[in-house]
Amino acid sequence: MNALAAIFLRDVRLAIRVGGGAWMGVLFFLIVVALVPFAVGPDSGLLQRIGPAILWLGALLASLLTLDQLFADDREDGSLDLILIGRTPLQLAIVAKALAHWLTAGLPLVIAAPLLGIFFNIDLSSMGAVALTLLVGTPALTFLGLIGAALAAALRRGGLLVPVLILPLTIPVLIFGVAATHAALAGPVPFGTPFTILCALSLMSLVVGPVAAAAALKNAD
Amino acid sequence: MTMKDTALRPEAPGPKKRSMAITNLANPSRFLALVNPILPWLAAATALTFALGINQAIFVAPDDYQQGATVKIMFLHVPSAWLGMFCWGLMSIAALGTLIWRHPLADVAGKTAAPIGTAFTFLCLVTGSLWGRPMWGTYWVWDARLTSVLILFLLYLGVIALWRTVEDPSRAARAAAILTLVGAINIPIIKFSVDWWNTLHQPASVFRLGGPSIHPAILVPLAVVALAFTLLFLTLHLAAMRNEILRRRVRTLQLMQAQKAGE
What we know:
The complex is a heterodimer of chains A (221) and B (263).
Chain A: H1 2-16, H2 22-40, H3 44-67, H4 72-77, H5 79-85, H6 90-117, H7 124-155, H8 161-185, H9 192-218
Helix pairs in contact in A: 1-6, 2-3, 2-6, 3-6, 3-7, 3-8, 6-7, 6-9, 7-8, 7-9, 8-9
Chain B: H1 3-7, H2 21-25, H3 28-60, H4 74-101, H5 104-136, H6 144-165, H7 169-183, H8 186-196, H9 216-262
Helix pairs in contact in B: 3-9, 4-5, 4-7, 4-9, 5-6, 5-7, 5-9, 6-7, 6-8
């Protein structure tokens, strides 16, 4: 337990200190969201309709792009080898790292989303829905992204490989995240139906992601 | 030189015992000895079944009373869809062989299946949208079945991209195996998408409780064509596996020669 707490705290500290890049995700999110009105035009009715979808898409891209270095940095400074040969189960160590990453990169996105919603004239209750679905859905993105990050670290390849491998797997999360938001806004479907499926996807990825990532790291040699 | 390379060396001695047939097959040399004589027969069987199947599909099977002749697209579409999914299932089994037994033949099976599966999935998507245009009035809808098959296609491309990114075949194999097993979650989603969601795509009509809901006049030709497609897949896959084994042997020989020249 102590080892897991140590890994968690270390990753949080590394992320929020200088050079950690925890805020880069939020900044990227802000820029992506700000680009959209230039692409589709400043029609406020249209922006209000597609706003939740844009926030979800921005959060998806931002959380995946920050994941790229999750294991690569550790492998460079040798701490990954220590985690691999340590007595702590690798899967749990990976969960600790993922939680630290979500806390420093995912949670800021959730907090920033309602503020960015102002750009799209999304009303207060819908902003709550967007934030709630992101709160439940971003852990799924982090845990799925783990697989790609572990593969990239194991193969010593970065760049576009992680998004190419992982984005297809995140499509269900995107579908149900946006569906839940739309259900809260207007849809005939009750909010609970897509929302509970979104929760289920997060829990499922909590199991699948760390196990697959551990297998990838163990098979790296 | 890694262990994997030596396992694929041409003169690698096979196990002497004849008792375990399947483990014997796992030896690449024995696999080649079995595949080489089988392949021509399998190719001939494929051609024969295709001749029979195409004849039945075009001349014997009646036109649909609503769809007219466009129903014939189904004879391409349904078998391609089956094989696109079957191929991922086969890759998942090969992935288990790669990760658990670290067997090079499983690596070869997984690697060579990916492009063939991609081709069948692509064929399924293309024929589906060509049929959708006159029938549904659109080439594409974001329907659960169509979307999940598109995801399957993207996953296939991801696996191929992974294979092409890494030079060392055994490392690439293990990485691709993990991705394949994670992607296998998608297969039951494709199968049951028409039951779980209210889709534009029609629900299951061949493999379902209470028997097929298709008239035998169309079902029988469909089964023949599906058999032909499966035989085609087996032929292509075995041939591709043979080529890949030979390609790796050439690579190993080149490495050995380079090593010798360096000494």
